[in-house]
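User: What would this chain look like folded?
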Amino acid sequence: MVAGEASGDLLGAHFIAALRQSHPDLQAAGIAGPRMTGAGVRAIYPSDKLAVNGYVEVLRHLPELLWIRSRITRYFLHARPRVFVGIDAPDFNFTLEARLKQAGIPTVHFVSPSIWAWRPERIHRIKQAVSHMLVVFPFEEQIYQDAGIPVSYVGHPLADIIPLEPDSAGARAALGLQAGPVVALLPGSRLSEVTRHARLMLEAAVRILRHHPDVQFVLPAANEAASQLVRQAGQGLNLPLHILAGQSHTALAACDVALVASGTATLEAALFKKPMVITYRVPVLTAYLMRKKARLPWIGLPNILARDFVVPERVQEDATPDNLANDALAWLDDATRRRAVAETFRDIHLSLKRDASTRIAEAVQPYLATRA
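Assistant: Here's the prediction, encoded as C-alpha cells.
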C-alpha cells in the first residue's frame, strides 16, 4: 500500500479495516501514516513524505520523491504482494503501479484523480497502470467504464463514518466551548497549506470577531509542526482561538460555519452539514498552469457534487481576509440559508453512503485469493 498525506492515511486505515473483516491474518506494508500503522500496516516510509502539492513544490522535492519511489518499487517487485493498493497520490502511484502491473502484480487504485475537473488525458496513463479502479463518487464510474478500465463504485468511507445527524452539543462540550457562535478554521493538512492559509484565516477571524464579540474559533492542527505554524501566524492577534491536536471531526461537529482549504476537508464539512467558505492559495505559476487545464467552474467538492455554487469559493487573489470574513458573516446572519444548505448536504451524504467497507472487500477479494 502507498498513501499520501493525512486524507490518504485515513482512507487507507479504513481500507485495511475492511479487508481484515474477511482476512484477519492479512499482512500489509508500504508508505503509511499513523492511522494506517495503527491499523497494522508496516510503514517502510511515512506518508508525510508524499504530502507535496503543486508544480513548484513538487519540483523542489523531486529528487527525494524519485529516490523513495525507486526504493519502494524494488521492495514490492522483490516481495511480490498479492495486490498493490495505491491510495490517492496519483502522480507518485501511477508510475509505481505501471511498473508493478507490467511485472504481473495486480494494482488497485483507491480514489480517482479529478480527471473530470482537469487533465482528462490522464485516463490513458491510468489504463496502463491500474488493474482495478475504486471510485468514491457515483458520476466517476461511467468515465472508467467508457475507457475500458475495470471499476467499482464503493461510496465514500467518510459518509459511513460521519453520522447523518452530528452531535453538535456533544462536540462543543467535549471541546469545552462556551455558548455562542463557533467558527472552525481548517487551513489544510500539509505544512505548505498551513503556511499559505493560516494567517489568511486568522485575519478573517479578527474581522468576524468585530461583528460577533461572542464568537469562538477552533482550529484542528494535523500535527505539532502545524500547530507551531499556526501560533506563529497568530502572533499579534488577540483571538479566542482553540488550537486542537487533530480532532477535525469534533471541530466540524461543533462549529456553525467553517473556513476550509479546498480538499477532502470540504467534503467532511459537507458531511457534517456545515455551511462553509472554501479557499485556496498556491504559487502564481501553479495557479496559472492549473487554470489552463481546468474543466469545471468549481474547485470545492461540495460544489462539484451539487453542480452549483452552494458555498462560496475564494481562490488566489480573491482569497482575502475581508472576503472570507464577509462570506462567513453572511452564513452566521442567515439561519434560513444555513438550513437550506444543510439539506443539500444531507442529500449528498445519502448519495455517498454505500457501506464502502463491504464494497471494498468485495472488489479486492479476487486478488487476495490468488498470488501474483
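The chain is about 50% helix and 15% strand. If you want, I can go into more detail on any region.
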